[in-house]
Amino acid sequence: MVDLSRRTYACRRWDLTSIPCKHAISAINFMRQKPEDYVDACYQTSTYMAIYSNTVKHVNSMDLWLPSDEPAILSPQYNRQPGRPRTKRIKDASEKETDGPKLGRVQKSLKSSNCCILGHNKKTFHRHLSPKIAAAKGTKKRKLNNGDASTTQP
Predict the structure, then answer these.
(1) What is the C-alpha to C-alpha distance for residues 140 and 135, in angstroms, rounded to an integer?
(2) How far apart are CA 37 and CA 29, in angstroms?
(3) N or C terminus: which one in the chain shows less Cβ crowding within 10 Å?
(4) Domain boundaries in the chain?
């Protein structure tokens, strides 16, 4: 039930916000009255203008302030917040900052663990061997997927 004299309704929205809810507005329209008359005075333009009618005076610059005997105002002390501290990554010698442009990481030459020769690794060492030595080491040849038996890959 909407009570226009007490400005209440069962949903309590009108009580909490002081603005009529949709049920109260339909009851006000049924009584052929204006819903604006049932809105609280704090939402009216005249109240808003009265609140902000006073102007805030600006403050003079610091050089015009009068000196005082009070101690200077200090910034608050820093308290370390709980949690895991951030750590800096240790940079490689090639990544250290220099006067010139930044360079990327210098790659070392590949070295095979099988034959200890620079220029290839364990996985690709057979590519750098002669066919007779590769056959003696036991590298197998396999057929390609297209079914051509004459073409083989090491």
Answers:
(1) 7
(2) 12
(3) N
(4) 13-51, 109-139
